[in-house]
Amino acid sequence: MTAVRAEEEPKLPAKLAAHPSVKAVLARRxxxxxxxxxxxxxxxxxxxAAGADDVAAVGLxxxxxxxxxxxxxxxxxxxxxxxAMAFRMNRDNCRSTARSVxxxxxxxxxxxxxxxxxxxxxxxxxxxxxxxxxxxxxPQEMDRFGTDRIWVVxxxxxxxxxxxxxMGLHRNVIHPKFGSFVLLATVMVDAEVSEYGQALDYxxxxxxxxxVTACPVGAIGKDGGFDGLACTTHNYxxxxxxxxxxxxxxADSADAADYRSxxxxxxxxSMWQSLSSPPGYKxxxxxxxxxxxxxxxxxxxxxxxxxxxxxLRPLQExxxxxxxxxxxxxxxxxxxxxxxxxxxxxxxxxxxxxxS
Length: 356
Fold this sequence. Notes:
Layout: H1 14-17, H2 20-28, E1 37-38, H3 40-50, E2 54-59, H4 69-75, E3 81-88, H5 91-95, H6 99-126, E4 131-132, H7 155-162, E5 166-167, E6 173-174, E7 182-189, E8 192-193, H8 210-214, H9 228-235, H10 240-252, H11 256-262, H12 265-276, H13 285-288, H14 298-302, H15 304-317, E9 322-324, H16 329-337, E10 343-345
Parallel strand pairs: 1-8, 9-10
Antiparallel strand pairs: 2-3, 3-7, 4-7, 5-6
């Protein structure tokens, strides 16, 4: 009886089999097959060399990733592992009352993270694996906006499952060393890794509640509650829904004078800047004031009064417009807690419910 080879050569039409490229591929296909399991140490060095500050892998079958599986597998069929990477931001940039400085830090770190994730994906591909890196932030799947989630993968959920940190009250991942001053990236790969990360056995949050105190629209509750609509209406004023609201204002204005009575010159200039450059966040103060993380905590422990005066108070005292939904809790909070910050009623760009 003739023995059967472990892996039969593919049966190809004679013309295709005679092609030089086909011959070259078939000649080396066995020698180039990658290891079925990626070495964790090799992977870590690869990610750090690409620019990540920390990295951990987690299997797609992790119970905390149940809500991610369908989206991940739609993006890269055959995915078995998610690689979570953390990238440090410069703290004082994020804390500046000049939000152009903070926004530049957010976007430049995001660009660094996208570049690094792309490099890791390329290296995995060159090693023989299928890999994919979704965007750290934008672009996203806007064709799903309003009907489904627009992100390909939830970077925060993956990072927590992989053990890179714990979700804080402010709904940002707190890294045990770098604190809240991190951005996250994820790479999908169709192979297992020899060692997966483990969830942290403690919470880096020190329960100072400074994020609660700093939020100008009261989106973060002391009890752990979070008003996502209040956050997006103000902080994301020049993203997605806020842009829609601005367009509606343009459309509803009778003429230029009417438009200028509704939108200040500064607001028009700010919207122009967000359209011509990466869009600007209006706040992000919850990250700015967070003292958690071993690399961050020292100044807070040494002199809490000085920390409040140099980090928290300048953001609280800054004169700025707060964008709120009419009659919302955020409006009441902003007007009561920050009377020196004008609260402006906006629709948030959300489509009004259909009339019955």
